[in-house]
Hints:
The complex is a heterodimer.
Chain A: H1 6-15, E1 22-26, E2 31-41, E3 51-58, H2 62-67, E4 77-80, E5 84-89
Antiparallel strand pairs in A: 1-2, 1-5, 2-3, 3-4
Chain B: H1 10-19, H2 22-25, H3 31-36, H4 43-68, H5 80-87, H6 95-122, H7 133-146, H8 153-178, H9 190-199, H10 207-210, H11 217-222, H12 224-227, H13 229-256, H14 267-270, H15 277-308, H16 330-347, H17 350-354, H18 359-379, H19 384-406, H20 409-438, E1 441-444, H21 449-457, E2 463-472, E3 479-481, H22 482-489, E4 495-507, E5 513-521, E6 525-533, H23 540-553, H24 564-567, E7 575-584, H25 592-607, H26 611-614, E8 622-629
Amino acid sequence: MKKEDFSREIYAKYYNSKGKPFEIILNDGTALEGIFIGFFHGEKDRGEPYIFMWRFISKEEIDDYNHSPEKYQAMGRVIYQKDIKTVRFK
Amino acid sequence: MSNIHSKLSAAGVLVTLGIIFGDIGTSPLYVLKAVIGEREITQELVFGGLSLVFWTLTLQTTFKYIWLTLQADNHGEGGIFSLYTLVRRYKKWLYLPAFVGAGALLADGIITPPISVSSAIEGLRLVVPDIPVIPIVIAIILGIFAFQRLGTKIVGGAFGPIMLVWFTMLAVLGISQIMLFPSVLKAFSPHYAIQLLVNYPGSFWLLGAVFLATTGAEALYSDLGHCGRKNVRVSWVFVKIALLLNYCGQGAWLLNRETAHLDGLNPFYEIMPQWFLIPGIVVATAATIIASQALISGSFTMISEAVSLNFWPRVTIKYPTDVRGQLYVPSINWLMCMGCIGVVLYFRESSNMEAIYGFNITLAMLMTTLLMMYYLRYVKKYTVVLVAAILTVFLTVEISFFVANIIKLKEAWMFLFIVSGIILTMYVWYRARKILNKLVEFVPIIEHLPALVDLSKDQTIAKYATHLIYLTSADNPRQIERRTIYSIFSRNPKRADIYWLIHIDRTNEPYTMEYTVDEMVNDKIIRIDFRLGFRVEPRVNLLFRKVVEEMVANKELDITSRYESLSKYNLAADFRFVILERFLSVENEFSVKDSFILNSYFMLRNLAQSDSKAFGLDTSDISIEKIPLVISPATSVKLKRKELKTDTDK
């Protein structure tokens, strides 16, 4: 059976999260809390997930981000889908 | 969408003769001459050579192309890219055979006109021995390429009748010789071919010359869309008979000869009566010009498809006439022209050109076979056993031809460079676009709709445009590129009454032209999705205007100016396009391979057409903004601050 694309599940939840922070656990055990502010599509031809990379800012940075004149430019950090173990939306 | 000629008709058959069979139809000018070469003329060689030509035409042209490959039409269109679009969903690497095949065919376009025209003009030596062939050939080639910008609407109508005369001439000349040596027809028996291959010394390498008889088969498939399958199949019966009669006539002449060698003579002209030489050469020259024309047109179509499929840098494409599918690509035209003249000057004689002709086509045929196997297996649902059987037959034949042609690489090495260059360009363009597409950051549009509506209403900001239009690559209408949002809000905030987002989706069908309109916020944000076939030019300005006209007609949109003074006079509102051009920021870190691909891509892009021209927006009101692509900022910056030395330290 074809494996479910976990990134689609995250995308659907993220789309409905209305900007509320959520928790991410990475494969190396790192726990992060914050929001996604953008995403990058994977290459379907190469079997990559629908979203292969997310742009993330931590909970502490959200306020700065919302008031930053640079908010529409590259901010935060990128997290690869393959590095994500779980995402818990509140 | 079918062509007017796609139904079987006498007119359709005539047009087909003019468009499809020029290349394969002019092969008798050089095939038998190449097969015999400097070898001793023996019955074994002539019968065996003719038999190989007959079975090659039967197996490769009739069976593989006319019967099998013509089934693989994409809504009536043929050619390697049409075939690729039919099968690309089944294996991700299928773009590679498509690139190799297309590269080989394009390179073939540099050799076919010189060899065909030279072969025809060299016949004049029988009338005027000291005639300067090279300047005449160059003048004809220059003429062919110079006239491309005018299209072939006016003269194209004469192509069919001229080729009808040509094929009739081939048949009549052949019959006139066969009557003198009727037993030459025995050559159709395959045992002569087998005997030659088994017993004749160095017979395998003869296949390189025999293969020249079928070189036009691939072009035949490329031009399918202009004629329709039924017309091609019916015409082929006539064409094949004419070709075989001529080949047999040349064979009969060879067997009737008293001398042991050809001594530089071309059997094609030797079977002509002396009084017929001049008219014969005139018809031959016209036929070779038509053959060259078909190949050049095919190259333009292929480049246009490659641009649409994002395999080739955007180049200027012109439409010299209103005939569908008739294109003119100036850059390719002049590159091919230079290549053809270079070939004439370097090789000087058609017999020297024979030594390099064929290699590219064997490559293209092998690639078509590979793609065809996927088509037969997955689209036509042939059984694995049947596909394997067909594959075995054609791979055996084509690999044999390929190996026999490899010897030509000694002379044709520069073509290997050309083919490699074309393939590399396609690969770089294709991969770079994939890499860059992965670097496009998207955001949910819903998060930005309130701000967009507020900006539109904010009277404190000067209006940038009444209608502001962005192109978007987001397939999902709920997403938008971050760079577009950045452009609207952060780069000189762009207040507009209506924001338009235009998305173009390329379909696997050649001529799809559909659109949908999604009014995301009433009278404020409108998204248009165009679905365009891979043979449709994305002339956004024209398409957008058409959509606006229809929306106005349906009373969905009012384009009267929103400025009081102008609306009083019913003047139309202003429309402004914003084009966002990406450039690679130095802040990124890529692997060596990706760096090479991206740097090559941006270098090629400097030579290519701008986005505004490619989308037909050069006559519109446009603003171009350069947006950096910053994804993976460089992390290993080892910068150390040092204390400033004061005078006392010195």
